[in-house]
Amino acid sequence: MNLDLERQPVGRSQLELAGKVDLGPREGGPTAVEVTGSLEVDNLGSRFLLTGRLAALGEVECGRCLAPCVLAYDVPVEIMVICSVEIDDDMGDTLVIQQRSGEVDLSGALREAAILALPQIRVCRPDCRGLCAQCGTNLNIKRCDCTDEAADSRWDGLPE
Predict the structure, then answer these.
(1) Taking the CB of residue 86, how many other CB atoms lie within 10 A of it?
(2) In a structure prediction context, what are the per-residue pLDDT tens digits for the chain, which is 160 residues long?
(3) What span, in angstroms and rounded, lies between the C-alpha atoms of 39 and 49?
(4) What's the start-to-end Cα distance of the chain, in Å?
(5) pTM metric for this prediction
(6) Other CB atoms closer than 10 Å to residue 81's CB: what's the count?
(7) Cα–Cα distances in Å, from 158 out to 68, 151, 152?
(8) Domain coordinates of the chain in residue numbers?
């Protein structure tokens, strides 16, 4: 996923993106996601500002029932490509790439944006019931015969 600096018209244009972004190994999270969408490119002469939202799809393990599922989420993107030698130190949360000409490889910046946008809670569906804490049965598939844990008798002497 590249941005060709020499072929970008002056002013505002669209950059269509589609491809796989490798996120690296991570516990419970996807190792790669497919991203699709378009970014708005503002060619300001010595700078290119890319902004927009991309759709990401990746395979994960549900955090409640441990079943494999597809995670779909939005990836907000804000990337600044600077063609001049001078760099402003105060770019805020914008990812900055410095390159004078040619094609800019956006995969590193898109990887970082996709990792930062990963949802903290990854579940197969919002009403996932998870696993039984006693027997491990997937409660989305069937009910178990376990009873609620009895209260710990060591706490009986304390006032309520």
Answers:
(1) 7
(2) 877 777 777 888 888 999 999 888 877 678 889 999 999 988 887 788 889 999 999 999 898 999 999 999 999 999 888 876 665 555 556 666 655 567 788 888 899 999 999 988 889 999 999 998 888 899 999 988 887 666 677 877 888 6
(3) 9
(4) 62
(5) 0.74
(6) 22
(7) 44, 13, 12
(8) 2-130
Structure tokens at 132: 């039984």
The residues that bridge with 55 in the sheet, in sequence order, are 36, 74
Q: What is the chain's Cα-based Rg?
A: 23
- Cα separations (Å) of 99 from 16, 17, 95, 134, 152? 21, 20, 13, 57, 64
Q: Please choose, from the candidates 89, 91, 85, the residue with its C-alpha nearest in 3D space to the C-alpha of residue 109.
A: 91
